[in-house]
Design goal:
CATH topology: TATA-Binding Protein
CATH class: Alpha Beta
Number of domains: 1
Strand order of the largest sheet: 1-3-2
Helix content: 40-55%
Number of helices: 3
Order of helices and strands: EHHEEH
CATH superfamily: Alpha-D-phosphohexomutase, C-terminal domain
């Protein structure tokens, strides 16, 4: 099924320093998206007041979006473990 979707995901941390480190780690991961996926998926992550905010815009098959969001959550978990 083809869909158009936008999402805003906010992770709350109590530390500006930790939020910054996690957001920067995610941005590096976002930059390495495969070329074919970059055309249909736009992911931007930033930090603000101890929060990590990720905005996602997507156009394509729902299964691909689900996989991309799963990868995002996995990347957050790894960044949390490292920080």
């Amino acid at each position: 099924m083809r869909i158009e979707a936008t999402a805003k995901i906010i992770w709350h941390y109590r530390s500006e320093e930790r939020a910054k480190a996690i957001a920067q780690a995610l941005e590096v991961d976002n930059a390495s998206l495969p070329e074919g996926l970059k055309k249909s998926l736009n992911v931007v992550t930033r930090w603000e007041d101890g929060d990590v905010i990720t905005k996602v815009k997507y156009s394509g098959e729902i299964e691909t979006l689900i996989k991309a969001l799963d990868d995002l959550v996995f990347s957050i978990k790894i960044a949390e473990d490292v920080t």
